[in-house]
Amino acid sequence: xxxxxxxTPAPKxxxxxxxxxxxxxxxxxxxxxxxxVNLDIQAGEFVCIVGxxxxxxxxxxNMIAGLDKPSTGSIEKDGMAITGPGADRxxxxxxxxxxxxxxxxxxxxxxxxxGTPGKPFTPAEREDRIRHFVDLVGLKxxxxxxxxxxxxxxxxxxxxxxxxxxxxxVLLMDEPLGALDAQTRLILQLELLQxxxxxxxxxxxKTAVFITHxxxxxxxxxxxxxxxxxxxxxxxxxxxxDLPRPRGESARGSARFAQLTDQIWGLIRDEAYRAIGGQSxxxxxxxxxxx
Length: 291
Ligand SMILES: Nc1ncnc2c1ncn2[C@@H]1O[C@H](COP(=O)(O)OP(=O)(O)OP(=O)(O)O)[C@@H](O)[C@H]1O
Ligand SMILES: [Mg+2]
Fold this sequence. Notes:
By secondary structure, the chain is an alpha/beta fold. 29% of the residues lie in helices and 22% in strands.
């Protein structure tokens, strides 16, 4: 992410003065969910968004996805206004959103039934593509299983394979690992980086926007961490994460990793305590706490 200047390359995603107000249909009550959000996200960047519950993270992601519209301001991808959902932006949520009546392979291939406009997949191409992405996420052998026969980690792998199979150039992920147990989550973080293209040249990486409550997860994954504050949701800080890539497990134990997580926790600690009705000064501060 970079400040907007005439010399910087056109960003993959640009949010300018974005504000979102929700209007309750019955009462007419307005909620200013996010205000004055300005962000440039460059192609191939992995950007994580953290912030207290209710600060507007999902609202921002949904607007980039085109599932919702800004009340004021603009969101552009490759210089074009985003006007609705599109196959160029794949979305993944915490709750898998798999179709329970379909097998792994049918879930992965769901978006491929009709191909892309003007270029439909042949049945053979579709099968190849499904096989490729099922293998990529480590689910070979589980193609014919149904979601209820899979663990949470496996289900989220299916959701990831489906996301990738549609060939988006922007990955939008809203707490995709939030429902997983701690160990599976750590493993999937590493796998996600590999799949995103951590070992590939930068120009081959997808652009990723990843929401999480977990500061360590944000630091481990991100090139940048956007810290939001609430009431209304605003961008409080954007921190570049200068940990070298590819990041292995050892990255989590480095002094720099601890510094960065401390810094981010320091930015959101007070609000996080307020959100649960406490005061940060009255309690011992856990520098690596997950908020
Ligand atoms: N459809 C809606 N109608 C009215 N208010 C909404 C709607 N969606 C979100 N809000 C409000 O907007 C604010 C931001 O919500 P949002 O879901 O984006 O927060 P969040 O940061 O994703 O929270 P969490 O971490 O709990 O997922 C909250 O005050 C929420 O109540
Ligand atoms: Mg949310």
